[in-house]
Amino acid sequence: MERLQKVMAHAGVASRRASEKLIKEGRVKVNGSVVKEMGINVKKTDLIEVDSIPIVQEQKYYFLLNKPRGVISSADDPKGRKTVVDLLSGVEQRIYPVGRLDYDTTGVIILTNDGELTNQLTHPKYGVEKTYIAKVTGLIDKKAVSRLEKGVVIDGYKTRPAKARIMDVDAKKNTSLVELVIHEGKNHQVKKMLKSVGFPVEKLNRDKYGFLTAEGLQSGEWRELKQFEVNKLKQLVEEA
Ligand code: URA
Questions:
Q1: Most buried one in 58, 182, 213, 228, CB count within 10 A?
Q2: DSSP assignment of 115-166, as one string?
Q3: What number does CATH give the domain 130-209?
Q4: Could you list the active site residues?
Q5: Which residue has the CA at smallest separation from atom 3 of ligand 1?
């Protein structure tokens, strides 16, 4: 159930405030009856009419893409580079990525036309957990891990507590693999955090977005989210 004015706004009738005005003016009907009081809840199946014209509630779509390198995570690119949206061939709805991954970062990214969920998932207040695996130059040690966990200063901002774990150290190649779990999504955050402790990132993959992984998807492949996964994502932001 959702508030009538919110459903109207989502259907593109008018802003929430302008929708409230339409309701007060007696121009809105729910299942054939004029509704003038504010704040009533409606179901997806309710027939809502404005000036006796039914509004169509936009159906929401949710996808998970295993983003390859060399693809930009926006809906359009002025430079004409390939975007994550271009990879979802056959999907006709206008969808947008939830947050961003760098051009050279791989891994889990969600795309949807649900603007409200996108705003919630990307809002710092909700802080959905994101798990990254980074290949870095250098042999990372516990001291660096502890600094990453406590928070480091990047661009004059102290990062919030994170979880970090050394997965592998390769002395021959002078590289390490680190898992970093963060709740924020500042620009280039993982690369900047690791650089600030002396370990520049060579490769970065987002292994998990909340509970979602790219399991079963090759690089560049995508799938529609299952209803229970969408519900769980919504629950994550409601609980936050
Ligand atoms: N942090 C980064 O530095 N890059 C990404 O793409 C995502 C998180």
A1: 182
A2: HHHHHHHHSTTT---EEEEEEEES---HHHHHHHHH--EETTEEPPP-EEEE
A3: 3.30.70.1560
A4: 102
A5: 188
Q: Left (φ > 0), alpha (ψ -120 to 50) or beta: where does 155 sit?
A: left
Nearest to 208 by CA among 146, 148, 128, 98: 128
Query: Considering only CA atoms, which residue is closest to atom 2 of ligand 1?
Result: 188
Fold for the domain defined by 2-54: 3.10.290
Ligand 1 geometric centre to CA of 200 (Å): 12
Please give the model's pTM, rounded to 2 decimal places: 0.82
- Using the structure block, give the residue that is written with the tokens 């802003």: 15
Closest ligand 1 atom to Cα of 132 = 8
For position 34, what pLDDT does the model report? 96
The residue whose CA has the least distance to atom 4 of ligand 1 is 188
- As a whole number, mean pLDDT of residues 39-53 equals 90
Indicate if 62-125+214-226 has the same CATH topology as 2-54.
no
Which residues does a 6 A CB cutoff place in the pocket of ligand 1? 101-102, 105, 188-191, 204
Q: How far is the CA of 198 from the centre of ligand 1 (A)?
A: 17
Q: What average pLDDT does the chain have? A: 94
Q: What is the 20 CA–ligand 1 centroid distance (Å)?
A: 40
The domain ranges of the chain are 2-54, 62-125+214-226, 130-209
Indicate the class that CATH gives domain 62-125+214-226: alpha beta
